[in-house]
């Protein structure tokens, strides 16, 4: 593949290894109908009695490439040999450019060094190793009884999980049986990673895996689920805040909905509207585009739904009630102030006149543009996280093969 | 509304008037569930025995504004008075910013001058008058027997019709009865305006209207439908080519599909993928993103569908066959050349470092990035038109309330 030759950017090979293989593991994968070879292999791994390690590479995602499954299996076999496991105890994950071939010979050659550098003290090297266009590593933790859950995540673009995508590894010492662990993971992933979008594009590769070392008794499944949700919700917000070219995180709380699917659909329509994303980017309170995005979803999917009781708020302020805008000079000034306060950075004119780069490498705050949609129709609710659309996103994705 | 005061951009009031009111008229409207007041009024007009005129304003779309329907009706009444019609014989249309109030007093004051300047010789003044962010007026024509169909269109952003949106006025002297005329309009609009997208956002306001003066006999309904489809398909492509910030038009032909809805869904998913749009903008043959966009739609809507017989072509060249990429150095060079040939212009570094403006005001050619998706599953097909995503789109929509 030409670009592999032209752009020999550094690939990281990352290992996550348990002290002992565990039966208590689970994973959810992308819903994309062109899944990568590692996803095909990973789905098979779910039938195995135990899992002992995960091997991750960035830069090349191994999707629809000739010999892709064989390449993933060969890498698993080499990692297993180095760790004293069987190949079926190793979960492979690849992220990066779609279409290129995995440089499997070089990767196999790097396995002994990866095994030798395993570090029991910190997940930070792994959180850094799996990064692609991420600006910073993402690590979150929560306690459960005497134990804890630690999670790491990578992902900045091609980020709209359906149930789950991106690369997320959740490690716990809390002992939860396989079936309960998998059911909890599915439901928590849907409520967290399933409710974010940076660009509405669903990756072909990505994976959320949860592995338990079973060292600590589980106080209750409710406590475990609640801690897992906290870790996943925090990582999901980290992913959006670090999304490609993100200047503003948007948090859309939709409530008063007839069911949760409607609430999520409306939230996604708002955060994925290119026109509303641009308005937010420019700190322009063009709330007409917010109304458009809600009406577009409802008109396309639930044309009979009555929106006359819908109330919209931005930054806590009512902007539409009973089908009519409530706007004036003072309201517009307050909305501009709210958006400016949520801005992570302002664009800097690029040196070459064309290629914008974010001037920050770490989010300066955790604020968001707060949007509230009350449909006045029921009791279901959903909160969706998304982002604006900026020159930096265009530069990242038009001029650079990431 | 503050922005009405701060940005008193010129509003045009445009009249389209028949020599006599006609029973042979029809219209299709946006599916957005927050329709503008003129759409609410327009739907009522479809029940009237005859229509004699259309009144159109740009700049303010009269959506969810206090007293919106009353404002539209008052304008219709004033136009009717000037033309010797009744108010119910006038179709109102407004396009522009959502949320602002129609400056109806000023508009009523302008009606006499609009009536006095009616021009029977050309539709060009109307095609120019209805423009908002359009770079140029759009006029198309086709013959039917001894008669013809002439169409004008405006629309550059918030442009993904579901059945029909934007403002399009189709005028014919061919005599087609009302029911047949409306059925033909619905089906043609779905196949033309229903198969384009600039930004996946569905306008709250827009309208496609067809009016016949019934002066010339219709040779056959098939000939009429075919001519109408030619005019509408040409206008639809004009809308995309003039879309906000468009550097490349993409034409996605999906065939071998089990049904037309699947074909259209896949085509829309490709043209609406932010990541693929950016790759096309940068003349980067990142066809992995094309595969991602197809798999995202199929995985979300038809998870059981078999994609193993899918063949993808770009610029006539096979890039994926039997689930595997067919790429090499020479193929990538050819794809880059195809994309560069379809480019309308390259971005010019902006004077202020941040605000990009298109350096052209008229499309230099009619070429497109040609994509062909053969699913190998059936005989249904659909061609979808869309565009890339550029710095100019961000500048137009982030920094400027259009």
TrEMBL record, chains A, B:
Catalytic residues in the record: 165 (nucleophile)
Pathway named in the protein's UniProt entry: Amino-acid biosynthesis; L-arginine biosynthesis; N(2)-acetyl-L-ornithine from L-glutamate: step 1/4; Amino-acid biosynthesis; L-arginine biosynthesis; L-ornithine and N-acetyl-L-glutamate from L-glutamate and N(2)-acetyl-L-ornithine (cyclic): step 1/1
Localization per record: Cytoplasm
The protein's enzyme class: transferase
Superkingdom of the organism of origin: Bacteria
Residues at which substrate binds: 132, 154, 165, 244, 397, 402
EC number: 2.3.1.35, 2.3.1.1
InterPro entries documented for this protein: Arg_biosynth_ArgJ, ArgJ-like_dom_sf, ArgJ_beta_C
GO cellular component: cytoplasm
GO molecular function, one term: L-glutamate N-acetyltransferase activity, acting on acetyl-L-ornithine as donor
Annotated site residues (Cleavage) in this chain: 164-165
One of the GO biological process terms: ornithine biosynthetic process
Predominant location category: cytoplasm
Subunit structure: Heterotetramer of two alpha and two beta chains.
Protein purpose: Catalyzes two activities which are involved in the cyclic version of arginine biosynthesis: the synthesis of N-acetylglutamate from glutamate and acetyl-CoA as the acetyl donor, and of ornithine by transacetylation between N(2)-acetylornithine and glutamate.
Family per record: Belongs to the ArgJ family.
Protein name per the record: Arginine biosynthesis bifunctional protein ArgJ
Species of origin: Cystobacter fuscus (strain ATCC 25194 / DSM 2262 / NBRC 100088 / M29)
